Amino acid sequence: MSDPPRAPAVMPRLRRDHFIDLRPFAVSPAFTRLWIGSTLAGLGGQLTIVAVMLHVYELTGDTFAVSMVAVAGLVPMIIAGLYGGMLADAFDRRLVAMLAAVVTFASTLLLAVLAWAQLETVVWLYVLSVVNSAANSIVGATKSAITPRLIPRDLLPAAAALQGITVGIMVMAGPALAGVLVAFAGYAWTYSIDVLLMTTLFLGLWTLPSIKPEGEIVKPGVESLRDGLRFLRRAGNIRLQYILDIIAMTFGHPLALFPAIGAVLLGGGAITTGVLTASIAAGAFFSSLFSGPIGRVRHHGIGIQRAIQVFGAATVVFGLVLLAAQLGWFAPAVVDEDHANLALIALAMVALAITGAADNVSAIYRSTMMQAAVPDAMRGRLQGIFTVVVAGGPRIGALYAGTVATFTALWFPPLLGGFVIVGLVGLLVRLSPGFRAYDAQHPVP
């Protein structure tokens, strides 16, 4: 197949409203098929992720064993993301994504077969979940490098906003649906539904034309990775957005505290943990739904700064809500897993929804900057390096929140972290005039 035709650099906007820009669907049927496949496959992937954790807990009764599912997959996921980015910069990206998707499909299918045969073991669940997450890292890095070849540059923010819709659907609906399916249908049916949904990703990838990287091709290996790192050292705007994201995720990602918050501070137990987590995803979803004005902003560096500072301010508010709970404001006579402080839970949900919305707006600008400013031959490797940021930031954040809360109180890490985010992001951007001056019409890495 031949490379997809280049779309015009600028597409007229028919409606200037606040709703999500759907022109990528009209401009590129290939992008539409890939988006539908990615959304449905991502929803299925969430089913399997949650089902595996529930499955491990049922077999072991050990929460540490459940947490190790994520820990075991971290290093393979990072390595696979880095190597997948190098593959995407050296070979036909459609073929790389297809082969990685086959591995994901096979691991999920084997999970389903083992569950139907009642031969599943903890070791198998660990191994197959690690394989699944590693292969998905390659698919993700490759798809991100494919997107700019399917739609014109001025529609990249709209494409990123549509990705926010995908993530919102996955995170809001996936865990809840997984719990219902496991409870009423069992693990075998849950894994099998993921297998069925996974086939839609193949449809989106199979119908793509051949998409070979443009520019100088570097054979995958150490030198290719060094080449990507050398480019990143020269690309001040891309490097700073990585740093800003790490700051946000380190000091404003208190998810590790949610179980304790639900148990002893706000009450409500696991239900409170679930609604607090879902609030973040809901914020991301609705910010994408009303993302129309985002595509009209040219200064993406300023957009990233302001979005992350709003994220930090909302994190401060979340910390203040927890402080109010510590002081007993609006609390019922007893606060425990069966008695919740509903007023403060509602306020906490609003604050977390704002963090989710702000983080999604930042992600739209960051994704657009990376896809527009990075040369095509380097996009896969930069996306692979970003995998390290995405995978490592929240885990560093969990370490920060857990450690600080151990020596202080549950409300202190988000309160302190929010102020650190607002101040540190403002300082770093102030010291980076090129980042402040970044113009989407003339992207400079």
Description:
It is a multi-pass membrane protein. Keywords: Cell membrane, Membrane, Transmembrane, Transmembrane helix, Transport. It holds the Pfam family MFS_3. This is MFS transporter. The chain is mainly alpha-helical and 445 residues long. It has two domains: 23-205, Up-down Bundle (Growth Hormone, Chain: A), CATH 1.20.1250; 229-445, MFS general substrate transporter like domains (Growth Hormone, Chain: A, Up-down Bundle), CATH 1.20.1250.20. 74% of the residues lie in helices and 0% in strands. It has helices at residues 23-27, 29-60, 63-88, 93-116, 122-146, 156-184, 187-206, 222-234, 236-251, 258-265, 269-289, 300-326, 342-373, 379-407, 412-430, 433-436.
Major sheet: size, sense and barrel closure? none
Query: In total, how many domains does the architecture comprise?
Result: 2
Quote the beta fraction. Answer: under 5%
The CATH class of the largest domain: Mainly Alpha
**CATH architecture designation of the largest domain:** Up-down Bundle
| Average pLDDT taken over every residue | 87
Order of helical and strand elements: HHHHHHHHHHHHHHHH
Number of helices: 16
